[in-house]
Here is the input.
Amino acid sequence: MARIEQTLTDKAYEIIEEQIITQELAPGELLSEKLLSQELNIGRTPVREALQRLAQGGLVNILPRRGIMVSEINVGAQLRMLEVRKEIERVLARSATQRATEKEREQFKKLASQFRQSAVQEDDLLFMRVDKEFNELIAKTARNEFAEKAISLMSGLSRRFFYNFYKETANLKTSADLHAKVAEAVASKKIDQAMEASDNLMAHIVELTKQAMDY
Here is the structure.
């Protein structure tokens, strides 16, 4: 039973997270556990567990006597988070390059190709989904449970921020290319190149975030 519940929790989490990132569920919107359960055709217990995970990642706030609310987008908080995320991303890039298996390196090559495909197609939703898979893979292959846990608390907020501001502040091709270069360096076992690519990507994200202050 626990295994089934976990699978349903993961499914509920992925669906609700994507709805929040794409603003199908908008910042400030109050959520109903009961309605979400009905809409997703998933039991209330997995939905409740998914919402608790989303709260840990900052995408929803659980408010006493008010319910569950989608968190607001805060540019200042995003910049402060990036100060920490930059250092963790360097650890992940270095460690993943050292520790990934050959099968995992093939996955990184595939993701690099998908990043570039999303740019060619100008498909921001595809980019966001590939980015999620990339974040999960690099965290897994780094094989550092502390870095993996830390980055998991930031990835959803980062994807939502990018998805909602890139059209005004960034070129999807540039962002996709920078992500692809990290993936390719990890796949090629080039540690220095992977760390440099990670730094370049984070510098781009910081600049994008600063530009978002004007919108």
Observations:
- Confidence is low (pLDDT under 50) at residues 1-5.
- The first strand starts at residue 30 and ends at 31.
